[in-house]
């Protein structure tokens, strides 16, 4: 089986590639070739027994998606996107990559004619306030960002191309990924990860919102699990409703901090500095808090068990099992 | 005020142009110029006191939408579309006109920079079965046709372009138009109109489904009323949720026939020939039956009062007030 990851140099793409390299198989089939495509070169995952091909390019460019489809990959993970903040700042770039790029890919798949499995990474940015207490599977998509709009359009296209028999597609709406590894970034949602990751590494982090803020989280490891499950599932069970909100963990910032205290002690918690930002608090008030993702649960998608588990996954996967003990 | 109708030669476009010509004003402003654009030449509406410009062309073609925006129309009605059946048969043509054409138009509006009102004609084809008993305003779009998919994508784009301040847009999801004037067409929904229009004109018509089939209807006159109201409304009241399901009349085929009997007697009803079509009955089972369009009602959109009224509107507007009395 040949597998293509579009966005293979990104955070989830990299972890997904590592897991596929480790497993050597997907959906019960041995993987013969793994292609990692991105705008920058991806890394060959350590210990990969299959052939790994690295490719770089610009997905919406003419002929580009056709080139990626030339070897008729059986499973395609489409994770490439301009992120929320950038798509909001650069309207044209967001539509070019997130909408035209996705459509180019789907058209190339249609032209290739072999009807592969396609897993499209969508987002809970599909939804915009006001919300019901818990957002159900039939609540309407009402995005409040260009990024969210582009993701919903991608979902609709994946649904229609599936219904027409051009591919066998599924869109999975990922929760906010927490704890996101790497350096703090400028995403408005970055603080959810910053206030966990930095203290665990012995650094200070800023908490700009109140502890009562609730949000919907999944660890990177769980997100990779969603991808693998989405690639393996019999999609006939979904009918033509091919977009699914993934299960997550609804926790408040206060609950995050309590979990940090349990896992890393008071000295880690003491590294969180409270600097309220009313502007950010307003933005966050428009975000989903919690969902009732009944269909995804019925189909076997599983959230992290607790926020402590999310922290332990981070310590294991990113910190080699060690918490920074130095400190204040 | 300058008004542009894209799709000005179509059934609703023609009636909308006639109404605007008759009124001479829109949203409280006198109309100085009315441009009717379509793939085929539209007709100058009788008695138009304003300047009427007829233009033909291919909306998604390069530079075409820019040309339409050159005189900076204040209100744009976008009614042009490849219809459901054709978009399902010709996948590329449907996406080219319904998706790329709409996006071209929105891009041209953005480039023109004057932030006009834009009224986009969407459809209840945005929804696909299974449904709740009555579809509410927050029920998700789950189209089961390429046409429906393209309409929802249009709604999302109109929403995002509005939120970004490029235009002041609204998408209105029209009910099935009944009684549709003209000759019987091949649309699967054609029978709802055929079994009324043909008997009123002294012709036979075929009823392919059972009398218990319920559907959501609006007369052409009411649809034009929706357009005018959508062009006049303060859209700030909608927030960024700019797609609205229009009120309609939920009636069964049996209720349609009872209304026909009241308005035109037994001899008209006798012209309906029952030829059950299980294939069509299956298709129709996937269509919406009834809605609870709370937001649109609150905003002052009004459905037809009864199916008898729908028939009287048809007799007045299409038959010059005369029902065919000739018998079998």
Number of strands of chain A: 14
What level of helicity do the residues of chain A show?
Answer: 25-40%
Q: So what's the overall shape of chain A? A: globular
Q: For the record, what CATH class of the domain at 2-175 and 219-245 in chain A applies?
A: Alpha Beta
Give the termini separation of chain A.
Answer: 52 Å
Q: Strand sequence of the main sheet of chain A, in spatial order?
A: 5-4-1-6-7-8-12
Instruction: Note poorly predicted spans of chain A.
Output: none
Rg of Cα set of chain A? 20 Å
Strand content of chain A: 15-25%
CATH-level-2 architecture of the domain at 2-175 and 219-245 in chain A: 3-Layer(aba) Sandwich
Order of helices and strands of chain A: EHEEEEHEHHEHEEHEEHEEHHEHHH
- Most extensive contact: A-B, 23 and 23 residues
Average pLDDT for all residues of chain A: 96
Biggest pleated sheet of chain A: 7 strands, parallel
> What is the name of the CATH topology of the domain at 2-175 and 219-245 in chain A?
Rossmann fold
Oligomer status: homodimer
The SS-based structural class of chain A is: alpha/beta
Continuous helix count of chain A: 12
CATH superfamily of the domain at 2-175 and 219-245 in chain A: NAD(P)-binding Rossmann-like Domain
């Amino acid at each position: 089986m040949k597998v293509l990851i579009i966005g293979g140099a990104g955070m989830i793409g990299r972890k997904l590639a590592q897991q596929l390299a480790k497993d050597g198989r997907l959906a019960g089939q041995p993987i013969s070739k793994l292609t990692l495509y991105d705008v920058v070169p991806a890394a060959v995952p350590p210990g990969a027994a299959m052939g790994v091909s690295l490719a770089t390019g610009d997905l919406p460019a003419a002929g580009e998606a056709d080139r990626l489809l030339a070897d008729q990959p059986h499973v395609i993970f489409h994770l490439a996107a301009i992120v929320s903040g950038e798509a909001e700042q650069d309207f044209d770039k967001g539509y070019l990559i997130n909408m035209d790029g996705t459509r180019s890919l789907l058209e190339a798949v249609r032209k290739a004619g072999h009807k592969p499995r396609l897993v499209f990474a969508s987002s809970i940015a599909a939804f915009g306030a006001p919300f019901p207490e818990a957002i159900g599977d039939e609540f309407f998509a009402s995005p409040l960002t260009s990024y969210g709009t582009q993701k919903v359009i991608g979902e609709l296209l994946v649904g229609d191309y599936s219904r027409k028999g051009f591919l066998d597609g599924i869109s999975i709406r990922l929760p906010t990924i927490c704890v996101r590894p790497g350096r703090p970034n400028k995403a408005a949602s970055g603080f959810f990860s910053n206030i966990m990751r930095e203290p665990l590494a012995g650094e200070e982090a800023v908490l700009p919102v109140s502890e009562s803020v609730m949000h919907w989280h999944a660890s990177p490891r769980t997100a990779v699990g969603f991808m693998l499950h989405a690639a393996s599932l019999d999609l006939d069970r979904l009918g033509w409703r091919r977009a699914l909100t993934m299960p997550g963990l609804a926790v408040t910032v206060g609950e995050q901090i309590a979990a940090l205290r349990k896992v890393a002690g008071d000295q880690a918690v003491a590294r969180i500095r409270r600097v309220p930002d009313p502007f950010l608090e307003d933005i966050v008030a428009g975000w989903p808090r919690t969902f009732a993702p009944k269909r995804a649960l019925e189909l076997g998608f599983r959230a992290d068990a607790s926020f402590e588990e999310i922290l332990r996954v981070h310590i294991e996967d990113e910190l080699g099992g060690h918490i920074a003990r130095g400190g204040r």
